[in-house]
């Protein structure tokens, strides 16, 4: 991985994000669009001025989720020191995952249809709302003519996109891949739907303390938005431009529970398969892994199922953290955002704390990082991501 880009509730840009997750402070607020709903709080990207970052015309053409993706992709490409003009554009792939697509546009235009009639629908509705459009807009913005595709594995989408992008490089289909995930679904429709499923925390009296992964009093996740993007390139391409990437994606594992539409398989057996596959591909064992960046949603079922899988694969002494205590759950962007956090933890030698943990759930039975960052003891880490439908993705990342 030669470049990183982030847009999250912890801030716009990698430096602001790293400071935010190390501080371990929740970003939950009460956004006006959720007023009056049963769950009226979420984690949203602060001070996101799309007109300044992208220009007014591009902002007008893009749904918020695509705006996030383009901003994060530009940062990642800049961080990689990659000059697109010096590359073969037909060998640059773009793979972006999303769980919801352009839901703000879809909800806004559907409301307009009902209130004012078909003639008032924007002609840009589909180019803004379709789930492939974040990928398309990143490719257009960069001038990337290689393979491009959108990934939808629910909340594992961003991590799956990174894994698939790595495979394109390994198979010789591309030299460079811009990959990640994005979502901007903090909307009345999604908030109401998740609330009806009883998936969200109902801690309305304490939004800042609501996202508490692995805590004994966790009661659901907190919705969030954002994007994470990485630049991957083959070693030959990197060497050809005089770059030696310090971070490598050594292993990618994926599995499907095939158990239930929303409930994880008991004891995390699908998670275990994904982790073991990623570690086997990386050629690493439990002693090589310094920490796990968990999916860690703060839901009663996910946290204990994931912990059970981690214990079986890596042992009870495994150091584990979840940055969702700070950012909330950015849905399809989560896996990509957390892959970037894993890279930063390895580069800086620090594991961010899990925010809001007052007492670790006894059934977790792992070494959960709480209160303050902890010195990282290893050169490799696992980043886990899971999604509704039973999608499981594990990435093994290492530094040299």
From TrEMBL:
Domain Ketosynthase family 3 (KS3): 1-399
UniProt GO molecular function: 3-oxoacyl-[acyl-carrier-protein] synthase activity
InterPro entries associated with the record: Beta-ketoacyl_synthase, Ketoacyl_synth_AS, Ketoacyl_synth_C, Ketoacyl_synth_N, PKS_Beta-ketoAc_synthase_dom, Thiolase-like
Keywords: Acyltransferase, Transferase
Transmembrane segments: none
Pfam families: ketoacyl-synt, Ketoacyl-synt_C
GO biological process: fatty acid elongation
SUPFAM superfamilies associated with the record: Thiolase-like (SSF53901)
Superkingdom, natural source: Bacteria
Protein family: Belongs to the thiolase-like superfamily. Beta-ketoacyl-ACP synthases family.
PANTHER family with a match to the protein in the record: BETA KETOACYL-ACYL CARRIER PROTEIN SYNTHASE, POLYKETIDE SYNTHASE-RELATED
NCBIfam families xref list: PRK07314.1 (NF005589)
Protein name listed in UniProt: 3-oxoacyl-ACP synthase
């Amino acid at each position: 991985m030669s470049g990183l880009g982030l847009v999250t509730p912890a801030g716009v840009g990698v430096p602001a994000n790293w400071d935010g997750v190390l501080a371990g402070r929740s970003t939950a607020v009460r956004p006006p669009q959720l007023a009056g709903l049963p769950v009226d709080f979420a984690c949203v990207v602060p001070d996101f001025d799309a007109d300044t970052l992208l220009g007014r015309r591009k902002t007008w053409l893009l749904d918020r989720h695509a705006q996030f993706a383009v901003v994060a992709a530009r940062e990642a490409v800049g961080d990689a020191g990659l000059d697109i003009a010096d590359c073969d554009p037909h060998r640059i792939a773009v793979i972006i995952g999303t769980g919801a697509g352009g839901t703000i546009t879809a909800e806004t235009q559907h409301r307009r249809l009902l209130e004012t009639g078909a003639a008032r629908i924007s002609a840009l509705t589909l180019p803004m709302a379709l789930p492939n459009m974040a990928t398309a807009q990143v490719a257009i913005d960069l001038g990337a003519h290689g393979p491009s595709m959108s990934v939808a594995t629910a909340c594992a989408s961003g991590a799956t996109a990174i894994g698939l992008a790595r495979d394109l490089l390994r198979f010789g289909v591309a030299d460079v891949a811009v990959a990640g995930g994005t979502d901007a679904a903090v909307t009345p429709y999604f908030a109401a739907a998740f609330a009806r499923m009883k998936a969200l925390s109902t801690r309305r009296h304490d939004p800042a303390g609501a996202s508490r992964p692995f805590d004994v009093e966790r009661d659901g996740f907190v919705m969030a938005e954002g994007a994470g993007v990485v630049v991957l390139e083959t070693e030959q391409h990197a060497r050809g431009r005089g770059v030696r990437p310090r971070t490598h994606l050594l292993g990618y594992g994926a599995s499907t529970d095939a158990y239930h539409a929303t409930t994880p398989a008991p004891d995390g057996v699908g998670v275990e398969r994904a982790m073991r596959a990623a570690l086997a591909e990386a050629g690493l064992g439990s002693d090589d892994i310094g920490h796990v960046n968990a999916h860690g949603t703060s839901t009663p079922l996910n946290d204990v199922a994931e912990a059970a899988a981690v214990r079986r694969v890596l042992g009870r002494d495994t150091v584990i953290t979840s940055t969702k205590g700070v950012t909330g759950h950015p849905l399809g962007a989560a896996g990509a955002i957390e892959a970037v956090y894993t890279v930063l933890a390895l580069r800086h030698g620090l594991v961010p704390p899990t925010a809001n943990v007052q007492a670790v759930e006894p059934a977790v039975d792992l070494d959960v990082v709480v209160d303050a960052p902890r010195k990282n003891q290893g050169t490799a880490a696992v980043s886990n991501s899971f999604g509704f439908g039973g999608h499981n993705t594990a990435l093994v990342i290492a530094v040299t």
